[in-house]
């Protein structure tokens, strides 16, 4: 710069510190424009000035120039080809656009590159993660199958051990049990049976144990409840006991169930074991009438089955007639039926009941060869109805005409009568 060169320079405004300068060289009138101390080639500015008008034009153009603020990125703050300025007057630009087109392009490119780079990095990371997880899954599945195999083997082992344990413990317990009294055996068995069950509601009790439970309950309901709720013994609840009792129905008259059972029994017996006699006896009872809430029936009224006399219906019974079957061989007896009558049953009724009973027994497979009663008058008159007299002690069998039905008087009954006679009389003579 020569001493006489013309220098025009100014700040844009107070906030903007951009320093702009125009130098017009005196020797050749060449013009140079500086923005922020950098020479810029501004579009539309002539190289040399010829008159003042030219200088005014240049001043107007440079006035609108802004320094380029660069890309705004740390990596490359300014493009190599940066114009160094921004023309605010140029259409499509404003004072806020502080970046030249080259710098803004470079900024855009760099940002895009950065974005692509980060995306790629992210993808690479994802891939790595995936590969790692695939490897991990493979490892885990291998481990899992190994463990499954182990579990299966162990389960098999446990099953075998359980079986072994069950057989061993059952045998040991049964062995130990034989040392206990019988009722205690039942209690222990019931306890072990209850312990084996997962759900206490499904417990099944042996009949002997139910009888024991019933006895305890009859003696004291409170004690029973205590033993049950504190789980001292494996006892069924009282409702369950009630259900067991209701299964054993005590009814007057012939029960088909008894004869069905006898038929089953007869099926597996030798013919010689199936012969026996029918016993019938009466006993006096005290009168009592009660209402059964479960069956909704009144108990205690005369009940002779189908043979109840009209005049005795709805009167209280005071005599029980019991029928029983006893075989000639074997130690068992079977109660067949019980009837409730007022006074002693008449010979007509007895005759019919005996006939029905004999027929039912014969049908179930047992043979009735004789009928034993005591020598009471009503029984004697029943004999006469069958045609029995002192000369003839048998009649044709009701069920099988080729056989005979024998009638027997209960000999001990004679002795009983004799004893009663002696006790009743104040004195008697023996001839
Ligand atoms: Zn620039």
What does this structure look like?
- With 431 residues, this protein is of the alpha+beta class.
- Helices cover 44% and strands 18% of the residues.
- It contains 10 helices and 15 strands.
- The strands form 4 sheets. It has a 7-stranded mixed β-sheet. Strands 1-2-3-4 form a 4-stranded antiparallel β-sheet, with helices on one face. It has a two-stranded antiparallel sheet with strand order 5-6.
- The longest helix has 77 residues, at 101-177.
- The chain is rod-shaped.
- The chain starts with 5 loop residues before the first strand and ends in a 7-residue tail after the last helix.
- Bound molecules: zinc ion (ZN).
- Zinc ion binds at residues 68, 70, 78-79, 82-83, 100, 102-103.
- The site of zinc ion (ZN) has 9 residues, from helix 2.
Brief write-up:
This is Transposable element P transposase-like RNase H domain-containing protein. The protein is α+β, with helices and mostly antiparallel strands and 431 residues long. The chain contains 10 helices and 15 strands.
Summarize the topology:
Elements: E1 6-11, E2 19-24, E3 31-35, E4 38-40, H1 52-63, E5 65-67, E6 85-87, H2 101-177, H3 182-196, H4 207-219, H5 221-229, H6 238-247, E7 253-254, H7 256-267, E8 275-284, E9 290-292, E10 297-299, E11 319-327, E12 334-341, H8 347-363, E13 367-373, H9 377-385, E14 394-396, E15 404-409, H10 411-424
Parallel strand pairs: 8-13, 13-15
Antiparallel strand pairs: 1-2, 2-3, 3-4, 5-6, 7-12, 8-11, 9-10, 11-12, 14-15
Zinc ion binds at residues 68, 70, 78-79, 82-83, 100, 102-103.
């Amino acid at each position: 710069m020569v001493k006489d060169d013309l220098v025009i320079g100014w700040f844009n405004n107070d906030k903007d510190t951009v320093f702009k300068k125009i130098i017009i060289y005196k020797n050749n009138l060449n013009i140079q424009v500086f923005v922020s101390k950098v020479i810029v080639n501004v579009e539309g500015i002539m190289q040399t000035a010829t008159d003042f008008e030219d200088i005014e034009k240049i001043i107007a153009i440079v006035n609108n120039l802004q320094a380029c603020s660069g890309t705004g990125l740390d990596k490359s703050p300014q493009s190599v080809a940066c114009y160094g300025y921004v023309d605010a007057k140029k259409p499509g630009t404003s004072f806020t656009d502080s970046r030249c087109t080259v710098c803004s392009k470079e900024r855009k490119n760099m940002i895009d590159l950065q974005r692509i780079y980060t995306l790629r990095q992210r993808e690479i990371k994802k891939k790595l993660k995936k590969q790692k997880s695939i490897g991990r899954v493979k490892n885990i599945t291998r481990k899992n199958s190994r463990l499954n195999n182990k579990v299966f083997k162990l389960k098999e082992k446990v099953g075998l051990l359980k079986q072994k344990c069950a057989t061993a413990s059952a045998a040991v317990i049964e062995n130990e049990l034989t040392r206990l009294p019988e009722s205690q055996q039942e209690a222990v068995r019931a306890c072990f049976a209850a312990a084996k069950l997962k759900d206490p509601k499904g417990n099944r009790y042996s009949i002997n144990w139910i009888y024991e439970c019933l006895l305890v309950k009859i003696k004291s309901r409170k004690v029973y409840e205590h033993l049950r709720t504190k789980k001292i013994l494996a006892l069924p609840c009282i409702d369950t006991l009630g259900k067991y009792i209701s299964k054993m129905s005590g009814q007057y008259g012939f029960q088909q169930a008894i004869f069905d059972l006898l038929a089953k029994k007869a099926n597996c017996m030798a013919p010689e074991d199936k012969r026996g006699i029918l016993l019938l006896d009466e006993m006096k009872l005290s009168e009592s009438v009660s209402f059964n809430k479960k069956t909704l029936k009144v108990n205690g009224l005369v009940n002779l089955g189908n043979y109840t006399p009209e005049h005795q219906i709805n009167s209280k019974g005071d005599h029980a007639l019991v029928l029983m079957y006893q075989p000639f061989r074997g130690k068992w007896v079977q109660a067949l039926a019980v009837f409730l009558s007022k006074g002693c049953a008449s010979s007509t009724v007895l005759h019919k009941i005996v006939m029905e009973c004999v027929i039912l027994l014969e049908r179930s497979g047992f043979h009735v060869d004789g009928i034993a009663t005591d020598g009471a008058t009503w029984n004697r008159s029943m004999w006469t109805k069958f045609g029995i007299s002192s000369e003839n002690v048998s009649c044709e069998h009701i069920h099988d005409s080729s056989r005979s039905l024998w009638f027997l008087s209960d000999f001990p009954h004679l002795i009983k009568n004799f004893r009663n006679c002696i006790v009743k009389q104040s004195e008697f003579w023996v001839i």
